[in-house]
Amino acid sequence: MRSAVMAKLRFILGDHLSRNLASLRDIDKDHDIVLMAEVGGESTIVGFHKQKLVLIYSAMRHFAEALRAEGITVDYVSLDCPNNTQSLDGELKRALNRHDVETVVVTEPGAWRVRALMDKWEQNLGVPVEIREDDRFICSHERFSAWANGRKSLRMEFFYREMRRETGLLMTDSGPEGGQWNLDAENRSPLPPGHRAPERLRFSPDAETRRVIGLVRERYPDNFGEIEPFSWAVTRHDALRALDHFIAAALPGFGTYQDAMKSGEPFLHHGLLSAYLNIGLLGAEEVCAAAQRAYYAGDAPLNAAEGFIRQVLGWREYVRGIYWWKMPDYAQTNFLGAQRDLPWFYWSGETDMNCLANAIDDTRRHAYAHHIQRLMVTGNFALLAGIEPRQIEAWYLAVYIDAFDWVELPNVHGMVMFADGGLLASKPYAASGAYINRMSDYCAGCRYSPKVKDGENACPITLLYWNFLIENRRVLQANPRMAMAYRNLDRMDASAVQGMQQRATRFLDGLNAGVTTTNPPLQGELDL
Ligand code: FAD
Ligand code: SF4
Fold first, then answer.
1. Of the residues 102, 307, 466, 524, which has the maximum number of CB atoms within 10 A of its CB?
2. 77 by DSSP, 3-state: which?
3. Measuring from each residue's beta carbon to the nearest atom of ligand 1, which residues come in under 6 Å?
């Protein structure tokens, strides 16, 4: 018989969908209750991509069913439940009126904003609230602080080596497998002509996912992105199938073509696993172990296995460490003083810069773009054009299926926008059109040319690149990693530099007025 006195209410959030979650692991199936709630307030923070909403709500519903199948009592509040307050606070409060529980147990959330809410629950709701650390990450908060505190250099590479030593991943008795820690130099090939990207596993929506698609379509018609075709996995079972498929079909080419981009091929050799990792359908350790197994079985080369493990064990754990170590102040910095509004074409995709049009179109259709598109296309443009960090951060949080504050913010604020002044990246990832031309086929289909610096066809990215160096000389020139860029700038003919700067300024003025070509009318002619 149920003893209400001893019951715990276990509040599971939408990115907490792991059976081994800290707040579920010791569940007493006879007494405890799991609370899950689809809350609109969380869904509208930045107007998420429709596919992200479908993924989270559908995965939550499937997870709840799996718990019920185990004999666990789940109190599930759907988005369209008439009494849904659409807030985490409100739903917890209502649940406490429905259930007689002695304690609320939660796992810490993935956003500082929600953590601040949680910290007030005990006082506001008059019930003990136990907030457990999210130990699905390989590096705990304590471990990260121990590594970071007092360090002069917080470079990811040093953190990554410690994580390799501690986990033993790709380690031999004498050091890193193959003798080198990092095979990044072998991760930068463009795609050879005729290269075929592997087929990806697609998951047809079941009846529950179809219901969620209907609900999201009805409630969020104006959110960014296409809702269908929706082909993401929404259960752990299918996420594991996606992992197996990636390891067998795509991992072998992952290392070599990690930085390559191709029109109409958003996925190439990438894992498409970040959303599953971030909501809990897959674990960081298990995906790293799978890549390591493929290497030792001879099914994937070392540059692929190491490259993949570096992303998950290195970058993913590192940005999460930085986030919790530095928040909330981290989000407030704006080292380069960038103030420009986000151009409308980030939402509409309507721009004649083919690289941006492609990356945004992939994003709109799949809620996905791979790392180099995010960093070196949409990110590079935002950096060069001086978009206000807060605005571009909101865009990244809204449009990607895998976006959660702890991972999106450091990547955008630190890695893309250099807004933290170099805490995370040793220099801005600024690039001219030549980089995009080398790594993709975008320029071949563009009305601009990356090699042209003057006239109608001058590539805006190249113009903005030189303009960025000129405008930020005061704060960037002393950075040794920028020395080569400034040497190249200073070798250029002064009148050519002046011409490029004028053209870049005209472009930026046009951007403010919603025009995205390099040849907008001059300010006086604009219909403002
Ligand atoms: P793969 O290319 O297959 O990489 C394997 C895994 O490594 C990913 O699944 C991911 O878990 C991890 N990973 C790789 N790079 C990073 C990184 N820099 N930070 C954290 N994890 C990493 N990743 C997110 O999960 N959520 C985000 O909101 C997010 N925003 C980003 C914004 C910008 C501006 C940039 C430059 C990167 C961002 N990333 C983010 C990191 C990376 O782009 C995505 O993790 C990756 O594109 C997801 O696709 P994938 O699973 O196919 O990755
Ligand atoms: Fe982008 Fe410039 Fe290449 Fe056009 S020419 S695709 S704008 S880099």
1. 307
2. strand
3. 270-274, 277-278, 308, 311-312, 315-316, 319, 370-371, 374-375, 379, 396, 400, 402-403, 407-408, 411-412, 415-416
CB atoms within 10 A of CB 298: 7
- Ligand number with the minimum distance to the CA of 358: 2
The tokens for 231 are 């082909």
Amino acid identity at 326: K
CA atoms within 13 A on the CB side of 400: 30
Q: What is the average per-residue pLDDT within 496-500? A: 92
pLDDT of 44 reads 63
User: 442 CA distance to ligand 2 centroid (A)?
Assistant: 7
- Residue 5's pLDDT band, with cuts at 50, 70 and 90, is low
Tell me what pLDDT residue 45 has: 63
Residue 4 confidence (pLDDT) above 50 = no
Per DSSP bridges, beta strands 175-176 and 33-37 are unpaired
Closest to 72 measured CA to CA, from 101, 25, 30: 30
Question: Rounded to the nearest whole angstrom, what is the distance from the C-alpha of residue 129 to the centroid of ligand 2?
Answer: 53
| Cα angle: 277, vertex 66, 24; to 5 degrees | 65
Euclidean distance between CA atoms 467 and 498, whole angstroms: 9
Among 268, 311, 375, the mutation site with the greatest number of ligand 1 atoms within 8 A of its Cβ is: 311
Determine contact, residues 475/336, Cβ cutoff 8 Å. Answer: yes
Nearest Cα residue to atom 10 of ligand 1: 274
Which atom of ligand 2 is the closest one to the Cα of 445? 6
C-alpha dihedral sign at 318, 324, 326, 331: positive
Instruction: Report the relative pairing of strands 8-11 and 103-107 from DSSP bridges.
Output: parallel
Chain segment 33-80, per-residue pLDDT in tens: 999 999 987 666 678 999 999 999 999 999 999 999 999 999 999 999
Helices 460-471, 494-512: axis angle to 10 degrees equals 100
Task: Decide: 317 and 138 in contact? Cβ < 8 Å.
Answer: yes
Where residue 437 falls among pLDDT bands split at 50, 70, 90? very high
Q: How many CA atoms lie within 13 A of 528 on its CB side?
A: 12
Count the Cβ atoms, other than its own, within 10 Å of residue 341: 12
Helix (H, G, I), strand (E, B) or coil at 289: helix
The tens digit of pLDDT for each residue in 372-381 reads 999 999 999 9
Overall residue count recorded for the chain in this entry: 528
- The residue whose CA is least distant from atom 8 of ligand 2 is 433
What is the amino acid identity at position 523? Q
